[in-house]
Amino acid sequence: MPKVSEEYRRNRRRSVVDAATGCFLTEGYRGASMHEIIAATGLSAGAIYNHFPGGKSELVVACARTALDQVFDLAAQTASAPFDPESWLVGVLESLAAQPRLARLLLVTWGEAAVDPEVHGALGSHLEALRGLIDDRFSAWAVEQLGLSDREAADWVGMFSQAVLSVLQGWVVQSQLLPGFAHEAYLDYARTIAAVGE
Protein backbone atom coordinates (compact mmCIF):
# COMPACT_ATOMS: atom_id res chain seq x y z
CA MET A 1 0.00 0.00 0.00
CA PRO A 2 1.53 3.38 -1.03
CA LYS A 3 2.53 5.72 1.77
CA VAL A 4 0.34 8.82 2.07
CA SER A 5 2.39 12.02 1.94
CA GLU A 6 2.18 14.67 4.62
CA GLU A 7 1.04 17.16 1.99
CA TYR A 8 -1.82 14.86 1.03
CA ARG A 9 -2.86 14.56 4.68
CA ARG A 10 -2.76 18.32 5.12
CA ASN A 11 -4.85 18.87 1.98
CA ARG A 12 -7.37 16.22 3.04
CA ARG A 13 -7.67 17.76 6.53
CA ARG A 14 -8.15 21.17 4.93
CA SER A 15 -10.94 19.89 2.69
CA VAL A 16 -12.69 18.26 5.65
CA VAL A 17 -12.42 21.47 7.70
CA ASP A 18 -13.82 23.45 4.76
CA ALA A 19 -16.81 21.10 4.40
CA ALA A 20 -17.41 21.11 8.16
CA THR A 21 -17.23 24.90 8.17
CA GLY A 22 -20.09 25.01 5.66
CA CYS A 23 -22.19 22.88 8.01
CA PHE A 24 -21.29 25.01 11.03
CA LEU A 25 -22.17 28.19 9.17
CA THR A 26 -25.63 26.81 8.44
CA GLU A 27 -26.39 24.96 11.67
CA GLY A 28 -23.96 26.40 14.20
CA TYR A 29 -21.31 24.38 15.98
CA ARG A 30 -23.87 22.70 18.22
CA GLY A 31 -26.54 22.17 15.60
CA ALA A 32 -24.46 20.47 12.90
CA SER A 33 -24.25 16.70 13.26
CA MET A 34 -21.37 14.41 12.32
CA HIS A 35 -23.74 12.71 9.88
CA GLU A 36 -24.21 16.05 8.06
CA ILE A 37 -20.50 16.78 8.12
CA ILE A 38 -19.59 13.34 6.77
CA ALA A 39 -22.15 13.72 3.98
CA ALA A 40 -20.79 17.18 3.11
CA THR A 41 -17.25 15.85 2.75
CA GLY A 42 -18.23 12.97 0.47
CA LEU A 43 -15.87 10.76 2.46
CA SER A 44 -16.52 7.74 4.62
CA ALA A 45 -16.90 8.05 8.38
CA GLY A 46 -13.68 6.05 8.76
CA ALA A 47 -11.76 8.53 6.60
CA ILE A 48 -13.03 11.47 8.67
CA TYR A 49 -12.15 9.86 11.98
CA ASN A 50 -8.76 8.88 10.61
CA HIS A 51 -7.94 12.57 10.23
CA PHE A 52 -9.98 13.80 13.21
CA PRO A 53 -10.04 11.02 15.85
CA GLY A 54 -11.74 13.38 18.29
CA GLY A 55 -14.74 13.63 15.98
CA LYS A 56 -16.93 16.68 16.02
CA SER A 57 -15.26 18.35 19.02
CA GLU A 58 -11.89 18.23 17.28
CA LEU A 59 -13.43 19.55 14.06
CA VAL A 60 -15.04 22.44 15.92
CA VAL A 61 -11.68 23.54 17.30
CA ALA A 62 -9.98 23.04 13.91
CA CYS A 63 -12.60 25.20 12.17
CA ALA A 64 -12.38 27.86 14.87
CA ARG A 65 -8.59 27.98 14.67
CA THR A 66 -8.71 28.19 10.88
CA ALA A 67 -11.03 31.21 11.00
CA LEU A 68 -8.97 32.94 13.68
CA ASP A 69 -5.73 32.30 11.80
CA GLN A 70 -7.26 33.85 8.68
CA VAL A 71 -8.08 37.03 10.59
CA PHE A 72 -4.55 37.26 11.97
CA ASP A 73 -3.13 36.78 8.47
CA LEU A 74 -5.39 39.53 7.12
CA ALA A 75 -4.23 41.90 9.83
CA ALA A 76 -0.57 41.00 9.27
CA GLN A 77 -0.69 41.34 5.48
CA THR A 78 -2.73 44.54 5.27
CA ALA A 79 0.00 46.79 6.68
CA SER A 80 1.40 49.30 4.22
CA ALA A 81 4.93 50.61 4.22
CA PRO A 82 5.29 53.04 5.86
CA PHE A 83 2.60 52.03 8.31
CA ASP A 84 -0.48 54.25 8.43
CA PRO A 85 -3.09 53.54 11.16
CA GLU A 86 -6.10 54.67 9.13
CA SER A 87 -5.12 52.77 6.00
CA TRP A 88 -4.38 49.64 8.02
CA LEU A 89 -7.65 49.69 9.96
CA VAL A 90 -9.81 50.41 6.91
CA GLY A 91 -7.86 47.82 4.93
CA VAL A 92 -8.57 45.08 7.47
CA LEU A 93 -12.27 45.98 7.51
CA GLU A 94 -12.42 45.96 3.71
CA SER A 95 -10.72 42.56 3.66
CA LEU A 96 -13.29 41.23 6.12
CA ALA A 97 -16.13 42.71 4.06
CA ALA A 98 -14.82 40.81 1.03
CA GLN A 99 -15.10 37.54 2.98
CA PRO A 100 -18.63 37.38 4.44
CA ARG A 101 -18.25 33.66 5.14
CA LEU A 102 -15.28 34.41 7.40
CA ALA A 103 -17.10 37.21 9.19
CA ARG A 104 -20.07 34.94 9.91
CA LEU A 105 -17.83 32.13 11.12
CA LEU A 106 -16.11 34.56 13.49
CA LEU A 107 -19.44 35.45 15.06
CA VAL A 108 -20.41 31.78 15.39
CA THR A 109 -16.99 31.04 16.90
CA TRP A 110 -17.24 33.82 19.47
CA GLY A 111 -20.60 32.45 20.59
CA GLU A 112 -19.19 28.94 20.92
CA ALA A 113 -16.22 30.27 22.91
CA ALA A 114 -18.65 31.22 25.69
CA VAL A 115 -19.51 27.55 26.31
CA ASP A 116 -16.63 25.47 24.90
CA PRO A 117 -13.36 25.66 26.90
CA GLU A 118 -11.19 24.58 23.95
CA VAL A 119 -12.68 27.18 21.61
CA HIS A 120 -12.40 29.72 24.43
CA GLY A 121 -8.71 28.92 24.75
CA ALA A 122 -8.14 29.19 21.00
CA LEU A 123 -9.95 32.53 20.91
CA GLY A 124 -8.00 33.86 23.89
CA SER A 125 -4.68 32.95 22.25
CA HIS A 126 -5.82 34.53 18.98
CA LEU A 127 -6.87 37.78 20.64
CA GLU A 128 -3.55 37.97 22.49
CA ALA A 129 -1.67 37.49 19.22
CA LEU A 130 -3.83 40.04 17.39
CA ARG A 131 -3.46 42.53 20.23
CA GLY A 132 0.32 41.94 20.13
CA LEU A 133 0.36 42.63 16.39
CA ILE A 134 -1.59 45.86 16.89
CA ASP A 135 0.66 46.88 19.78
CA ASP A 136 3.82 46.34 17.71
CA ARG A 137 2.57 48.20 14.64
CA PHE A 138 1.08 51.14 16.51
CA SER A 139 3.96 51.46 19.01
CA ALA A 140 6.52 51.74 16.24
CA TRP A 141 4.32 54.27 14.45
CA ALA A 142 3.86 56.34 17.64
CA VAL A 143 7.63 56.54 18.12
CA GLU A 144 8.30 57.49 14.50
CA GLN A 145 5.34 59.77 13.78
CA LEU A 146 4.25 61.15 17.16
CA GLY A 147 7.72 61.52 18.61
CA LEU A 148 6.93 59.48 21.72
CA SER A 149 9.58 57.65 23.67
CA ASP A 150 9.42 53.86 23.74
CA ARG A 151 7.91 54.02 27.22
CA GLU A 152 5.36 56.67 26.26
CA ALA A 153 4.44 54.72 23.14
CA ALA A 154 3.90 51.55 25.21
CA ASP A 155 1.58 53.42 27.60
CA TRP A 156 -0.30 55.06 24.74
CA VAL A 157 -0.77 51.89 22.71
CA GLY A 158 -1.94 50.00 25.80
CA MET A 159 -5.05 52.17 25.69
CA PHE A 160 -5.39 52.77 21.96
CA SER A 161 -5.03 49.19 20.77
CA GLN A 162 -8.10 48.25 22.83
CA ALA A 163 -10.12 50.77 20.84
CA VAL A 164 -8.76 49.39 17.57
CA LEU A 165 -9.61 45.82 18.57
CA SER A 166 -13.12 46.95 19.53
CA VAL A 167 -13.59 48.53 16.09
CA LEU A 168 -12.71 45.23 14.41
CA GLN A 169 -14.96 43.18 16.67
CA GLY A 170 -17.77 45.71 16.38
CA TRP A 171 -17.69 45.50 12.60
CA VAL A 172 -18.13 41.72 12.70
CA VAL A 173 -21.06 41.89 15.11
CA GLN A 174 -22.86 44.76 13.40
CA SER A 175 -22.28 43.59 9.84
CA GLN A 176 -23.72 40.19 10.68
CA LEU A 177 -26.60 41.19 12.98
CA LEU A 178 -27.63 44.77 12.34
CA PRO A 179 -30.41 45.17 9.72
CA GLY A 180 -29.41 47.80 7.19
CA PHE A 181 -25.80 47.85 8.35
CA ALA A 182 -24.02 50.76 6.63
CA HIS A 183 -20.51 49.58 5.79
CA GLU A 184 -19.29 52.93 4.45
CA ALA A 185 -20.55 54.78 7.52
CA TYR A 186 -18.72 52.28 9.70
CA LEU A 187 -15.52 52.90 7.73
CA ASP A 188 -15.92 56.62 8.48
CA TYR A 189 -16.25 55.72 12.17
CA ALA A 190 -13.08 53.62 11.92
CA ARG A 191 -11.22 56.54 10.29
CA THR A 192 -12.36 58.79 13.14
CA ILE A 193 -11.02 56.36 15.73
CA ALA A 194 -7.71 56.10 13.90
CA ALA A 195 -7.50 59.90 13.67
CA VAL A 196 -8.03 60.22 17.43
CA GLY A 197 -4.80 58.31 17.90
CA GLU A 198 -2.98 60.95 15.90
UniProtKB/TrEMBL annotation:
<dbReference type="InterPro" id="IPR036271">
    <property type="entry name" value="Tet_transcr_reg_TetR-rel_C_sf"/>
</dbReference>
<dbReference type="InterPro" id="IPR050109">
    <property type="entry name" value="HTH-type_TetR-like_transc_reg"/>
</dbReference>
<feature type="domain" description="HTH tetR-type">
    <location>
        <begin position="10"/>
        <end position="70"/>
    </location>
</feature>
<dbReference type="Pfam" id="PF00440">
    <property type="entry name" value="TetR_N"/>
</dbReference>
<dbReference type="InterPro" id="IPR001647">
    <property type="entry name" value="HTH_TetR"/>
</dbReference>
<dbReference type="InterPro" id="IPR009057">
    <property type="entry name" value="Homeodomain-like_sf"/>
</dbReference>
<keyword id="KW-0238">DNA-binding</keyword>
<protein>
    <submittedName>
        <fullName>TetR/AcrR family transcriptional regulator</fullName>
    </submittedName>
</protein>
<dbReference type="GO" id="GO:0003700">
    <property type="term" value="F:DNA-binding transcription factor activity"/>
</dbReference>
<feature type="DNA-binding region" description="H-T-H motif">
    <location>
        <begin position="33"/>
        <end position="52"/>
    </location>
</feature>
<dbReference type="GO" id="GO:0000976">
    <property type="term" value="F:transcription cis-regulatory region binding"/>
</dbReference>
